[in-house]
Amino acid sequence: MSSQVREWNIRMHPSEAVASADEREAILANPGFGRFFTDHMVSATWTHEHGWHDAELIPYGPIQLDPATNFMHYGQAIFEGLKAYRHADGSVKTFRPVANAERFAASARRLAMAELPIELFLASVEALVRQDQAWVPSGQEKSLYLRPFMLGTEVGLGVRPAAEYRYLLIASPAGAYFPQGVKPVSVWLSDEYVRAAVGGTGEAKCAGNYAASLIAQAEAAQHGCDQVVWLDAAERTWIEEMGGMNLYFVFGSGDSAQIVTPELTGSLLPGITRSSLLQVAEDLGIRATQARISVQDWRQGCLEGQITEVFACGTAAVITPVGEVKSRNSGGWKINGGTTGPITLKLRQALLDIQTGVAEDPHNWLHHIC
Ligand SMILES: *Cc1c(COP(=O)(O)O)cnc(C)c1O
Questions:
Q1: By C-alpha distance, which of 80, 94, 47, 175 is closest to 364?
Q2: Is the pTM of this model over 0.90?
Q3: Residue of 95, 217, 228, 315 to test ligand 1 pocket, by largest number of atoms within 8 Å of CB
Q4: How far apart are CA 122 and CA 83, in angstroms?
Q5: In angstroms, what is the span from residue 107 Cα to ligand 1's centroid?
Q6: Separation of CA 304 and ligand 1 centre (Å)
Q7: For residues 351 and 362, is the Cβ–Cβ distance under 8 A?
Q8: pLDDT of residue 121
Q9: What is the pLDDT, as a whole number, of residue 40?
Q10: Long-range contacts of range 355-360, CB-CB < 8 Å, 24 or more positions apart?
Q11: CATH entry, 185-355, from 3.30.70.1620, 3.30.565.10, 3.20.10.10, 3.40.50.300
Q12: CATH architecture group of domain 2-176
């Protein structure tokens, strides 16, 4: 098999006008999220004739596209999100990049796009992070956020899978998600809008899913909530996700605490943080299962005390506690008195400790870059 694995050579065309050390340090002191970008990006192109080619690292900057470029009209656009962490010894590692590469390929299949080979995805991450390693911040919960994405770039308005694709990878330094300490969010149960239906694109990380979610997020904000919680499309009964994150419910407390996450029915995005937490919980002796949970289960469970904590998880925030629920038809209720619970904090710290090299990495999730 190994003879079939092609080595991807990323041609290096580094910038002659990189940010100065002073400029960079000023940004890294307070990067926020997704506001600043590193000096370089990686680009590769796919055509029927040549497959994937022209993989290169180039200076970060605007790209020029014809107004009839296919994805601008019909939305063949997918993306990923992963982080590189600086460890105490100065080394830089990414967390489970192969899982992101595999999900990227699965998203491409669903959107009838060319699949990016796993090895090219990894080679692009290695090339960019190594080149821009000075942009990986050190310090509590800081990271370099990596954004791989792919667009259908055939020019023309015919409705069909594009005959040309462009893969791009950019990187943005990210600060702590909760600079003032972990704070619970309030959520609005969306009974009018749905994020995804079985058979649709909910399992794919495609741009259109996010476009379709914004109106519900705006409705949540109108009701004074930070985030929207999605219910299943068919029955509007079963809990699916929170915004762009997966959910976990904590049952019981102390040594008898268990965690349950909504099972993957075909309309949920299979989060890598979600799957990592199933394992981390087990490692900590916390039973973790996947099951269907209804709005009524959630409400009754909180009122009667079986559900003690609820949290959301994803690459950007790792774990975000949920403190309050509001809805049109099922009333409102608090979780754990609106405060962050101990199981939530324990799991959050355990996963962060693996990612940042503070704890052992028993499952080989870290990928050494430099
Ligand atoms: C990206 C994403 C997640 C979280 O996935 P991670 O791999 O954990 O970052 C969850 N839900 C949706 C809808 C997403 O797009």
A1: 94
A2: yes
A3: 315
A4: 13
A5: 12
A6: 30
A7: no
A8: 98
A9: 98
A10: 355/83, 355/85, 355/95, 355/318, 356/85, 356/87, 356/141, 357/85, 357/87, 357/88, 357/89, 357/91, 357/93, 358/88
A11: 3.20.10.10
A12: 2-Layer Sandwich (3.30)
State how far the Cα of 240 lies from the Cα of 243, in Å rounded to an integer. Answer: 10
Q: Measured from the CA of 103, which atom of ligand 1 is nearest?
A: 7
CA–centroid distance, residue 203 to ligand 1 (Å): 10
For the segment 104-128, what is each residue's pLDDT rounded down to a tens digit? 999 999 999 999 999 999 999 999 9
Beta strand ranges found along 200-306 (DSSP E): 227-231, 239-242, 245-251, 258-262, 287-291
Residues, the chain, total?
Answer: 370
pLDDT confidence of residue 176? 84
114 C-alpha to ligand 1 centroid (Å): 21
* DSSP 3-state of 53: strand
User: Residues of CATH 3.30.470.10 domain(s) within the chain?
Assistant: 2-176
Query: What atom in ligand 1 is closest to the CA of residue 273?
Result: 8
**Which parts of the chain sit beneath pLDDT 50?**
1-3
pLDDT in tens, 45-99: 999 999 999 999 999 999 999 999 999 999 999 999 999 999 999 999 999 999 9
Measured between alpha carbons, how far is 43 from 56 in angstroms, rounded to an integer?
Answer: 5
Report whether residue 323 contacts ligand 1, using a CB cutoff of 6 Å: no
Using DSSP bridges, classify how beta strands 185-190 and 164-174 pair: parallel, antiparallel or unpaired.
unpaired
Residue 222 tokens read as 């109108």
